[in-house]
Specification:
Mean pLDDT: 83
Structural class: alpha+beta
CATH topology of the largest domain: Beta-lactamase
Shape: globular
Radius of gyration: 22 Å
CATH class of the largest domain: Alpha Beta
Low-confidence stretches: 1-60
Number of domains: 2
CATH architecture of the largest domain: 3-Layer(aba) Sandwich
Order of helices and strands: HHHHEEEEHEEEHEEHHHHHHEHHEEEH
Strand content: 15-25%
């Protein structure tokens, strides 16, 4: 959803703003103080390149920030497992308080997919005369690029206090599959199960251009947040909510320790529009759960019927992200088995009880990285406890949002959906000047839904998902295969 689009940047992929960040808390979700981001010290060896890989740029040795970047490259290119002790020797306590060592270790393959190895520093900018900060472009053998920013402490051993990774310009995934058959092959290589739908929007209807297993409901991850946005828009239209309405941060609605809202103080206020922007553009889970509580779980459930979601009953009762985290990823009870044993009314009562008390952690350092089943965060589990829709349901959702956005006063819906059109993907923006997007993932799950308006005014929706209950899938390969379907309407 990322529920994992941004959990402490734990499960980030190229479809969302990608970052591993530890910073001083900011006063609003828009504020990003890059001067406080952190990075870590290590060996200066850059992994060797292959003939197909981009040429490396030599970073100056002896400069603390450059040495730490070099260590990072050696780690993500290495075959040996990174240990907690190694991470703690590289990162400052302030960084580790927000991104614990175990979480850093588990998130590294998600942010820097092994399939793109070897990575090299194709560009390096060490303009800081102190050598304590710098930026670089990290390029994978497949051409995927990431911008890295790093800052280290001034005193030896120059522990990393800030580290930020974001998709690089011009480094989008090549959307190579040109035919439906090629897309199907690519999806089969990426995941055990998948579905895809490409639709032209004609007179408010989703007219199929191409489909693969479109009748199968798919797990959505954070794509379900589109339904919360739709209900918020409806309530704004009805006059029971407003974009500039202030909503205070509440501890019991803190979800995964990610994004920006989690780190705010109880009582800090943001507008509903600011919550919605964070929920969609960076998939902030704490923002999501505040909005779900504000607009009402049962109202969002009713919105599914209004939208025409054929699999609405599979989403009853509507889980918050915090609900899902606790049931599937926390070692404490109630767990997935407890939830699965209940009927709908029993599940609803349990969720209400969970909402009243909040998650069993309040800071990132308190998160247990192994759940009750003994599985680590980066392993798939309990994929039946999720949010579900068919790809045509996702098309109907985008159409519904587009209709709402045409209503005077609801223009922010389109603006929110266009903030992040799918970072790291090589769409032709001249051909598709308007792109609206929401993606989602958790271990073993990836989904994405795009609204494209072509430069001739025709409108299309591309939606798809991939899942594997037994092993983490290659999110890069899966999202590349799904996004390639835009070639069918280019």
């Amino acid at each position: 959803m990322k529920i994992y689009d941004c959990h402490m940047r734990r499960f980030l992929t190229t479809i969302t703003a990608m970052a591993l960040v530890a910073t001083a808390c900011t006063s609003s979700p828009d504020a990003t103080d890059t001067s406080d981001t952190t990075a870590a010290p290590v060996s200066t060896t850059i992994a060797p390149t292959t003939t197909d890989a981009p040429a490396a740029t030599d970073a100056p040795t002896g400069q603390p920030a450059a040495d730490q970047l070099a260590w990072l490259v050696s780690v993500i290119n290495g075959d040996s497992d990174l240990t907690v002790d190694e991470v703690e020797k590289r990162f400052a306590p302030a960084f580790l308080a927000q991104v614990p060592a175990a979480v850093f270790i588990q998130s590294t393959p998600q942010i820097f997919p092994p399939a793109s190895r070897p990575y090299v520093l194709s560009e390096f900018d060490g303009a800081d005369p102190t050598g304590l900060s710098g930026s670089a472009v990290l390029t994978g053998a497949d051409g995927v690029k990431l911008n890295l920013q790093i800052q280290v402490e001034s005193a030896a051993p120059n522990l990393i206090i800030g580290l930020l990774a974001t998709p690089g310009e011009g480094g989008g995934l090549d959307l190579e599959a040109e035919t439906l058959a090629e897309i199907d092959v690519a999806l089969g290589e990426a995941a055990a199960s998948s579905a895809l739908g490409v639709y032209e929007v004609t007179d408010g209807d989703c007219v199929a251009v191409a489909e693969l297993r479109a009748e199968n409901p798919i797990p959505l991850g954070s794509v379900f947040k589109l339904w919360i946005l739709a209900e918020l828009g409806q309530q704004v239209a009805d006059g029971t909510a407003s974009w500039d309405e202030l909503l205070a941060v509440q501890g019991n609605f803190r979800s995964s320790p990610d994004g920006q809202i989690f780190m705010l103080e109880d009582g800090d206020e943001l507008t509903l529009q600011e919550y919605a922007e964070a929920m969609i553009s960076i998939s902030d889970n704490t923002a999501t759960d505040h909005l779900l509580a504000r607009v009402g779980r049962e109202n969002v459930e009713a919105a599914l019927v209004r939208i025409g979601v054929s699999e609405a009953e599979m989403n009853l009762p509507m889980l918050s992200t915090g609900n899902l985290f606790q049931l599937k990823f926390a070692a404490s009870e109630p767990n997935a088995a407890d939830y699965r044993a209940l009927d709908t009314d029993g599940r609803r009562a349990l969720l209400e009880e969970m909402d009243a008390f909040g998650l069993p952690w309040s800071t990132p350092s308190e998160v247990d990285t192994v759940n009750a089943d003994g599985l680590s965060f980066n392993q798939p589990r309990d994929l039946d406890i999720e949010w579900f829709a068919t790809v045509e349901d996702l098309c109907r959702t985008h159409v519904h949002l587009a209709e709402l956005a045409k209503t005077p006063g609801l223009e922010p819906i389109a603006e929110i959906l266009e903030i992040n059109p799918g970072s790291g993907l090589g769409f032709e923006r001249d051909r598709f000047p308007t792109i609206r997007f929401k993606g989602g993932s958790e271990p073993g799950v990836l989904a994405g839904a795009w609204w494209f308006e072509r430069n001739d005014g025709r409108q299309f929706v591309v939606a798809g998902g991939a899942s594997n209950p037994d092993a983490a899938l290659s999110e890069t390969e899966a999202i590349g295969a799904i996004a390639s379907a835009v070639n069918l309407v280019s």
